[in-house]
């Protein structure tokens, strides 16, 4: 009897914005370091139209839920584009991994998973329910990468160095990773999109 082709698995992307020196944010700076432009914002709108399920941890859930609710109620604290993007997150399916949060979650279209995040995502990939992407959640993204579950690693690099004010170092605790570039693009003459296929290494090439 011939072998049966394996069912396609759902893909998982780690999606991050980052300063040149590896921070996810910086104290006192505006969102997107104040450097978002029309090309980048138009691309964000295109990405929002795709059917991603977003994966996030408890801290990111609390932060983004608060910002989304604020943007929906009163966008005076945000630019028009930022407010629209944040408010629109309520309609997107989200899976939240947390042992501290309790159901029901207040943010619409959010599902709580209190068990092991790596095993839960592994099961979600096997189920092939559709493309998934992380939303912030640096430690969750790192755990999924270490487990070999990440199919695409995408960065938008902002041209700032925030050595004095940077917060949330992205690469601390990462293993060695080889990256094969599959896409690059420049937005507004200053922001660089870099997309890779990652391969987690056991050590430097040739060390094994």
Automatic annotation (TrEMBL):
Domain Bacterial bifunctional deaminase-reductase C-terminal: 11-192
Single GO molecular function: 5-amino-6-(5-phosphoribosylamino)uracil reductase activity
Signal peptide annotation: none
A Pfam match: RibD_C
Highest rank taxon of the organism: Bacteria
GO biological process terms on file: riboflavin biosynthetic process
PANTHER family noted in UniProt: BIFUNCTIONAL DEAMINASE-REDUCTASE DOMAIN PROTEIN, DIHYDROFOLATE REDUCTASE FAMILY PROTEIN (AFU_ORTHOLOGUE AFUA_8G06820)
Protein name: Deaminase
Source species taxonomy: Bacteria, Bacillati, Actinomycetota, Actinomycetes, Micrococcales
